[in-house]
Design goal:
This protein is an alpha+beta fold. It contains 19 helices and 28 strands. Helices cover 32% and strands 22% of the residues. Residues 1-115, 116-249 form the C2 domain. Residues 315-509 form the Ras-GAP domain.
Length: 804
């Protein structure tokens, strides 16, 4: 039973951050200078590129401003950021890199840091190597070798016994098209010890200490020079004749990672947050989830576990998201956020400041809108945002910022046209607003009217402060942060989006403010807003706010808009038979909406083939051995399986996830699948002869999530546990404050830190704190009992460099 539980333990990794800017970039190798070239950045897990910024115009101090987030689907040892100079006629030239060991990521988590760029050495470290060895023979196995020109490499190894006055080298055979080669070859090296009876050479005992087994990994290039993949060394002294040494090693640069001095190549400013969660079986989190989900029913709400969590971690933004996701999945979000909003309103003295602070209520609603309203934003804003970014019309109306030759009247006309399109898209979108968002807005409206019954505008400001100020206006300002655009926009387009966002905020507030144009500080904005018909705009805003927050259920048009869930370039295996010599894999643009999966020769072209998502019966990984390619997956539908190769492990994981989620409720989903392909009259995985034979491996179970959201409740509970553990001292301070308030009666002088907590009922709050404390201690015991420490020399924790 314990083994079964251990099998359910998951190590989940994610990386969030921002590539901010570079400073004083140095020259690149070659005839061109850096100032003459455009630059871009990439992110690599070990040597596998998983993210790339857009190309930035000529500058030695480029501002990239690119946010990134991705789940890390495999073990890795090193996270690297490369700066490249874009070249038109030759390969992109490396300027420098920042490499951070996985174990060091925690030092930089959650903070912005400047990193000096290091020289990009073509003989830099790669991945991992395993060996089983004794003093006479060695068996080598490799994992996750890098792709060469997008293909699996043809690796071979050279094995040397090196030491004073000797260097014996042997070579393995080349393994074709694989990133996980296993070299089952035996090599013998004669080592004569001084204490041996049979002595052929006079080798002193101290020489044994200096002997090493060195293994170099190479990619066979046939006609070109072989590519060095990395090396590792093992001292002979650890290879005893009475046992086998078996361990994984991280491949190192030549010379075992000795760094040479490099020129000043500049620096890169990065913000990183790496999270690794050890997720236990579901039963371990039941007490914590039960206590958190009871929060909406606790009186007062400030004594609930969810409110306490937000109270002690108020300085950490990431604490709210797992709690919101947990509440959403269990249909407990609306009653909880209504209770905390009511508490905030009790402490609000003026109607015009309603929900303007960064409180627990506003942060919860912000996160909810980003999760639940993702498709709503895409349907409403993406078409017009794409038009703004691609047409690139000048919209500057500030006289101080006008460039030579700009016509302010033309710019004003361009800006007004864009604002009208965005404003119309928003105010006509009420039928697409998610029901849960409508439920929250309706509750906020009711609570605001109850708190300020004499103010006719507060019913609108309670809703517009979220849907306009914190949702639509923010998405217009930063479309890349809401997946409306793939990259941060250019400075000129960013300025246009800033002006549009500012205008939308103001138009959205017109329905709830008594002062309109007189509130503008800038003269040019005052003049610009005179062009809008104020009363008509107010009427449209109020109508929209009424529709998304009223008790009247919205009528559906009956036709759901197609929402693009994911798209990108992939390698697709040709369907059907092709004449000899033709490529079986070709580049295609893969596009998934909530209705269909299609592939195209190029982005924007007509679809070559379309598959209705309702016809998808399974989405699974494909063994690398099937096509000698990594990052392969298959879409099994009513006809032949569609075989696709993603660009990297992150892309493959994301495609698998989104395809599985969109098709998880389909009728006729398969229980089994074939992890390999059907060729030469048989399935290569199980050798079944019939192409219609049932699969030989169980299909991956896709968890059903509420609201069509991908929410892993166990992972969210583990995140909450980790955050509570990290704030244990604050929990203790809150317990002390409750004890003090409960024991002593009458006014008292509390320590300054006590005033940071919201404690209405000390006894009830103290009771909840003790429950949390007991649950945390039990969870910690569960973690400790499962031996989470990974063995040094394992695949997840390989040996770096030499070992003693």
């Amino acid at each position: 039973m314990a083994e079964d539980d251990d099998a359910k333990i998951r190590i989940l990794q994610s990386l969030r951050g921002k590539i901010c800017e570079a400073k004083n970039l140095g020259s690149v190798s070659g005839p061109n200078r850096q100032r003459d070239l455009c630059t871009f950045c990439t992110i690599s897990l070990d040597q596998e590129e998983v993210f790339r910024t857009k190309v930035f115009d000529k500058s030695v101090c480029p501002f990239y401003g690119e946010d990134f987030y991705f789940e890390i689907p495999r073990p890795f040892q090193c996270l690297s950021f490369y700066v490249y100079a874009k070249s038109v006629f030759q390969r992109d030239l490396p300027v420098g890199k920042v490499s951070i060991r996985k174990d060091d990521l925690c030092k930089y988590s959650g903070k912005e840091n400047w990193f000096s760029l290091q020289t990009v050495d073509p003989n830099s470290e790669v991945q991992v190597i395993s060996r089983k060895a004794d003093d006479s023979q060695m068996i080598i196995e490799c994992k996750e070798l890098p792709l060469i020109s997008g293909q699996n490499c043809d690796p071979y190894a050279t094995v040397s016994l090196v030491g004073p006055a000797r260097s014996d080298q042997k070579k393995t055979k080349v393994k074709k098209k694989t990133s996980n080669p296993h070299f089952e070859e035996t090599f013998f090296f004669e080592v004569t010890r001084s204490y041996s009876r049979r002595t052929q050479f006079n080798v002193e005992e101290e020489d044994i200490e200096k002997l090493e087994i060195k293994v170099d990994l190479w990619n066979n290039e046939n006609l070109a020079q072989d590519v060095f993949l990395g090396e590792t060394r093992v001292p002979v002294k650890i290879l005893q004749s009475d046992h086998i040494h078996k361990a994984w090693y991280l491949l190192q640069p030549k010379g075992n990672g000795n760094k040479s001095k490099s020129d000043d190549l500049g620096s890169l400013r990065l913000k990183l947050t790496y999270i690794e969660d050890t997720v236990l079986p579901s039963a371990c989190y039941t007490p914590l989830c039960t206590l958190l989900l009871k929060s909406p029913d606790v009186k007062p709400i400030s004594a609930s576990a969810a409110h306490i969590l937000g109270d002690i971690c108020r300085e950490r933004y990431e604490v709210i998201l797992p709690m919101v996701r947990l509440l959403l999945h269990n249909n407990r979000f609306v009653p909880f956020v209504s209770a905390v909003a009511a508490l905030e309103l009790d402490n609000t003295q003026e109607a015009n400041t309603i929900f303007r602070g960064n409180s627990l209520a506003t942060r919860c609603i912000d996160d909810m809108m980003k999760i639940v309203g993702k498709n709503y934003l895409s349907v409403t804003l993406k078409p017009v945002i794409d038009e703004i970014c691609e047409s690139n019309k000048t919209c500057e109306i500030d006289p101080i910022k006008l460039k030579e030759g700009d016509n302010v009247e033309v710019n004003k006309e361009n800006l007004q046209g864009y604002v009208q399109k965005v404003f119309s898209s928003i105010t006509q979108s009420s039928s697409n607003c998610p029901p849960l968002m409508c439920d929250v807005f309706r509750s906020l409206r009711h609570l605001a009217c109850k708190r300020f019954p004499g103010d006719p505008h507060v019913q609108y400001s309670a809703v517009s402060s979220f849907v306009f100020l914190r949702f639509f206006a923010v998405a217009v300002l930063s479309p890349h942060s809401f997946q409306l655009r793939s990259h941060h926009p250019d400075p000129e387009i960013s300025r246009t989006l800033t002006l549009i966002s500012k205008t939308i905020q103001t138009l959205g507030s017109w329905g709830s403010l008594s002062k309109k144009l007189s509130s503008f500080k800038e003269t040019y904005m005052y003049d610009f807003f005179k062009s809008f018909q104020e009363e008509k705009c107010i009427e449209k805003v109020k109508k929209f706010l009424d529709e998304i927050s009223s008790n009247v259920s919205k009528e559906s048009s009956g036709l759901e808009d197609a929402v693009v869930l994911k798209e990108g370039e992939v390698q697709k295996r040709a369907q059907g038979r092709k004449p000899p010599g033709m490529k079986t894999f070709k580049k295609r643009w893969l596009r998934l909406t909530n209705r269909e999966l299609s592939y195209h020769k190029h982005k924007g072209k007509d679809a070559d083939r379309t598959i209705n998502v309702k016809n998808i019966r399974a989405v699974e990984k494909v063994d690398e051995s099937a096509f000698n390619r990594k990052n392969m997956f298959q879409v099994v539908h009513s006809e032949k399986p569609l075989y696709v190769q993603a660009g990297n492990c992150v892309e493959a994981s994301e495609w698998l996830e989104v395809l599985s989620q969109v098709s998880r409720c389909n009728e006729g989903r398969l229980a089994t699948f074939h992890p390999s392909n059907y060729t030469s009259g048989a399935w290569q995985c199980c050798q079944s002869l019939s192409s219609n034979a049932p699969g030989c491996k169980p299909c991956t179970t896709t968890m059903l999530a509420n609201l069509q959201l991908d929410i892993d409740c166990d992972r969210e509970a583990e995140r909450i546990f980790s955050l509570l553990s990290a704030n244990d001292t604050k929990l203790q301070s809150m317990e002390d404050a409750c004890a003090s308030l409960a024991v002593y009666q009458g006014p008292q002088r509390e320590p300054e830190e006590y005033s940071k907590f919201t404690i209405q009922e000390p006894k009830e709050t103290f009771h909840t704190l003790k429950q949390l404390r007991n649950i945390m201690e039990e969870l910690q015991r569960q973690h400790n009992s499962r031996n989470d420490v990974r063995q040094y020399g394992s695949l997840d924790n390989p040996i770096v460099g030499k070992t003693s």
